Amino acid sequence: MTVQINIDLNSIVPKAYAPLYNDRTRYLTYKGSRGSRKSFSVAEDVIMQIILHPYVNWIVLRQYAYTNKDSTYSTIQQAAFRLGVYDLFKFTLSPLEITFKPTGQKVFFRGMDKPLAVTSLQPTTGVLARAWWEEAYELKSLDAFKTVEETMRGEINDPDGYYQSIITFNPWSDQHWLKSEFFDADTKNPRSKSFTTTYEDNPYLDDDYIESLQDMVKRNPNRARVAVYGDWGIAEGLVFDGLFEQRDFSMEDIAALPKAVGLDFGFKHDPTAGEFIAIDQQNRVVYVYDEFYQQGMLTQQIAQALGQHKAYGLPITADSAEQRLIAELSRVFGVPNITGAGKGKDSVSQGIQYMQSYRYIVHPRVKGLLEEFNTYVYAKDKFDNWTNQPEDANNHGVDALRYAMEQFMFRVARRYMTNQERIQAVKNSGLR
């Protein structure tokens, strides 16, 4: 079937993403800031490469297969609609894939958590010539990446055909293997090109969003380093360094564990964070299984979010500096079991120290807290030396987590411990 399509790519594709169309290098790697348009630009490329090249099929990968549905799959749908070619594609949820109706070329979606489903792919039309690795920072190892890449081989029935993989991510830590493999001059793959993009490479952002990023530079410079400038994150001085990991788990896995909710309030510039935990006291492991993390939330919206995330029936500990909000949630909107967090001398630093006696398993749906774990650092003194006090910035999810854990750290017989009792509890944790 011959299809006539008229798309002016020069008017659509930002200059920073032109290599997606005119560069045949085996690996094109984009690390970028929030709002840099890297994911949407690659989604448009997925559509256009299929239309332009009849031999091309795509595999789109994330660490966890199910996360594709509400991210890469949805973004490619939006891209097809924007390009005016949506009706030329068939979008199916089971299996999760996209088919180009005129030729049968496909976009497959897979996860590295199911490796056999990746390596066994065999398209019926053309070859598996393109891969998009989205949120590649989640990928566990270079070896696993190479295993999948080795499946992209074979003769292409087109003299101008080529294989290519596109890699996109936010660079939260400079210790990740992506840096040495694709960015460091001495060790990078010779068949690769790397790029850093920021919100300034996206001509489609509105002024309010740009203002929020510029405000982050002033208020949370550590987070802005990655989220605004697309630079590598900080490796030194992390408060929870080595104590957290992202891992998938089911509610059945944590069904027998006690659960709690922590709530920290924000509004215009700072998010309201709700962190949902299950705690394994015997093994000192905290499972963070759900979250809401959003700016501009009104009291009713917070109450609705607590209900939607199934907080009712669990103990909810909220920032006691906002007694009015706690009272409104309880008395006006009927949120049960909500109390203010304990306060007192050194309560924050004591809480952080106690928290450091646990390990944290963060579910893939919990993104705000994971970002904070990667950027929450100790403060420095005037001589540029690390202190033992965390910076009071970029910590709304961490504060909510601390409130949730208060039930298991500093409460005895339903009361908040005294300063001396908290000091002893920290000593008993083996960290002081």
Quick summary:
This protein is α/β, with parallel strands linked by helices and 432 residues long.
What shape does the CA trace take? elongated
CATH topology of the largest domain: Rossmann fold
Name the CATH superfamily classification of the largest domain: P-loop containing nucleotide triphosphate hydrolases
Largest sheet: 8 strands, mixed
CATH architecture label name of the largest domain: 3-Layer(aba) Sandwich
Quote the average pLDDT. Answer: 91
Strand order of the largest sheet: 3-4-5-2-6-7-1-8
Radius of gyration of CA atoms, rounded to a whole number? 24 Å
Give the tally of structural domains: 2
Question: How would you explain this protein's 3D organization?
Answer:
30% of the residues lie in helices and 23% in strands. The termini are far apart. The chain is built from 14 helices and 19 strands. The strands form 4 sheets. An 8-stranded mixed sheet has the order 3-4-5-2-6-7-1-8. A 7-stranded mixed sheet has the order 9-15-12-11-10-13-14. The protein has a two-stranded antiparallel sheet with strand order 16-17. The protein has 2 domains: 22-208, P-loop containing nucleotide triphosphate hydrolases (Rossmann fold, 3-Layer(aba) Sandwich), CATH 3.40.50; 244-428, Nucleotidyltransferase, domain 5 (2-Layer Sandwich), CATH 3.30.420.280. β6, α5 (142-149) and β7 (164-169) form a beta-alpha-beta unit.
